[in-house]
Amino acid sequence: MTSVPTAPGAPARIRPTPSVTAVPYNHPDARRLTQALRAEQLGLYGFADDPDATPENHFDPPGLFLVAHLGQEAIGCGGVRLLDEHTAEVKRMYVSIGARGHGTGRHLLGHLEQHAANRGVTRIMLETGRRNAAALALYHRTGYLPCPSYVAGRDPRVNRAMTKRLGSSSH
Known about the structure:
With 171 residues, the chain is α+β, with helices and mostly antiparallel strands. It has a seven-stranded mixed sheet, with helices on both faces. Strands 1-2 form a two-stranded antiparallel sheet.
């Protein structure tokens, strides 16, 4: 649980910390959340990668796919996969609209970064949409910096690639 500051003189609200569980990419909660991510991207950009086109083994070890829950409700997801021996990529980060603003994205990202660091990764990369202000703000607050696209054929008017060095203080 986390104590949440409120207005001066008001009692602090207690917000439960979501539980985070590793699941196969084809798990029903993962599929529902990644399809919600796609629907949101379609609304923002008019197009989006289809998460069902991602192979089910895309996040298999040494990668990882996580789902965050508050109680029984799946509220967020994200995955990490190795690109090479020292580089990992964060993919399919999403927090449901009603659960945003409570640190779930940061919580998931921290778990993914720690998983990558535990496997010897020293650099982590990701890509998000230029219009996704909340994601860009999260990544900036957690130490990610813009970098050239690492995905062939991406449009820099739409996509933003970011990177972060992982070390002893990665989150």
